[in-house]
Amino acid sequence: MHEQKDNPLHGVTLEKILIELELHFGWEELSKQLPIRCFEHDPSVKSSLKFLRKTPWARSKVENLYVEMVSSIWHKPPN
Q: Which H helix or E strand runs over 30?
């Protein structure tokens, strides 16, 4: 249990990750960050979820980008 408290993905669904990434980057920038077909051609949360649930290497890339995004937001210096 203790190892999960430091895991930024603990308790976060893949759907929430996609929504957060899309809100932060937008589909166009997301497809530049991660050139994955489900982000490049007619992207949607539903179609991306379907693809990412079947494709471990792509899901891993999405999760890593989410962790980077969250870490950069957490570590931004105050204004």
A: helix 14-33
Q: Alpha-carbon distance 65 to 69, whole Å? A: 6
> Tokens representing 58?
């792509």
Domain that holds residue 67: 18-74
79 in a structural domain: no
**Residue 38: which CATH number?**
1.10.720.30
Q: Which residue is listed with tokens 């570590």?
A: 75
pTM of the model: 0.82
How far is residue 77's CA from residue 79's CA, in Å, rounded to a whole number? 6
pLDDT digits (tens, 9 = 90+) for 27-38: 999 999 999 999
